[in-house]
Amino acid sequence: MIVCVAVVGNQVRSDRPRPLRGGAQNNPVYLQSFTEADDALKLHHIVHCSLDVIDERVNNPKRSGPTLNETFLGLLYPTENYKVYGYLTNTKVKFIMVTTDLDVKDADVRNLKVILQNHYKYVSVLVQIPTYIMFFRRFHAAYVDAVSNPFHVPGKKITSKSFAERVSVIVKSFGSTAT
Amino acid sequence: MGREVSESCVEGLMMEVVSAYSSRLYPAKPDLAARRIEAIGFQVGHQLSERYTMERPRFSDHLEAIKFICKDFWSELFKKQIDNLKTNHRGTFVLQDNRFRWLTRISIDPSTESTDESTPDNNAAQATNMHLYFPCGIIRGALTNLGIPCAVSPDISNLPACSFVVRIKA
């Protein structure tokens, strides 16, 4: 079950000092929690810590190996109750998803599954994209539509209600299809 | 998602933007009008680059990002690619389009500019330049969103081919 999603932007603010590593600053653009419990602050903290993991993955080409330039970063780090997944777009905007599904294997999350089905006269091939990647793709599409709003100022928080509704629809449908 | 409009509407809008900013809003200050038009283009390029880089893996260096602008981005906007890309390998790129779509409808009539002291050639050049500030802003906005701060200027030394000179800020 997804408990929190967040979008962190790439804006460089002129009033803050330049970051030492020359990377983009991380300004929160959207943060939404989907649990009724009162630990919203803890979720904020988890999202904040996972930003460091993203920076480390991106700036460390030796350790990432063949997945250096992919958008889906996979499992960032597991805490005792949650798993945190990240997705980095081409424009350095980071999507972060915190979930409580503790029994999903990393191989399932990352790899496509090819299922061969034998019908009577032909064989059909079904390629299944893992649900997490589908979730992030839909989330990315909703984000692009929200940012294309001419009244949206890049770098400020997204205040569009339709974006919030779309995100909650995506989160709900993810919860119902995933095992 | 979203609806589509015909291309002539976009060209009509561009003409009206340039004419409104140069003659009605900032009549004696062409530099200010140019900066405002370029700023509009900047925001448009910023948003378009988000949309057109959606399914792609990340770019590894500046040259890949410029090549993306020349090929995929330009064909989404103008249904053709940039015809010629030159670089001095020190942060300057020249993108040349041999038949820029938004300039194909412009014809300059030098006989009407008789009251100005500047030569008709100069006025024609300035009028054409005004139309190019918006695409310069689009390029600048797209590159800035990809993490490459730069300055883009138009170059119309040989019409109908026009060039955009991109200088990457260090």
Descriptive report:
Chain A has helices at residues 40-59, 61-64, 106-110, 131-147, 161-177, and strands at residues 2-8, 28-33, 72-78, 83-88, 94-99, 113-118, 123-128. With 179 residues, chain A is α+β, with helices and mostly antiparallel strands. Chain A has a single domain, classed as Beta-Lactamase. In chain A, the strands form two sheets. Chain A has a five-stranded antiparallel β-sheet, with helices on both faces. A two-stranded antiparallel sheet of chain A has the order 6-7. In chain A, strand 6 and strand 7 form a beta hairpin. In chain A, helix 4 (131-147) packs antiparallel against helix 5 (161-177). The longest helix of chain A has 20 residues, at 40-59. Chain B has one domain: Trafficking protein particle complex subunit 3 (Muramoyl-pentapeptide Carboxypeptidase, domain 2), CATH 3.30.1380. Chain B is globular and about 45 Å long. By secondary structure, chain B is an alpha+beta fold. Chain B has a four-stranded antiparallel β-sheet, covered by helices on one side. The chains are: A alpha+beta (179), B alpha+beta (170). The A-B interface holds A 10, 24, 68-71, 88-93, 137, 140-141, 143-145, 147-148, 150, 154 and B 1, 43, 46-47, 49-51, 53-60, 145-147. Chain A: InterPro entries: Longin-like_dom_sf, Sedlin, TRAPPC2L.
What's the topology here?
The complex is a heterodimer of chains A (179) and B (170).
Chain A: E1 2-8, E2 28-33, H1 40-59, H2 61-64, E3 72-78, E4 83-88, E5 94-99, H3 106-110, E6 113-118, E7 123-128, H4 131-147, H5 161-177
Antiparallel strand pairs in A: 1-2, 1-5, 3-4, 4-5, 6-7
Helix pairs in contact in A: 4-5
Chain B: H1 7-25, H2 30-52, H3 62-78, E1 84-87, E2 92-97, H4 120-145, E3 150-155, E4 162-168
Antiparallel strand pairs in B: 1-2, 2-4, 3-4
Helix pairs in contact in B: 1-2, 2-4
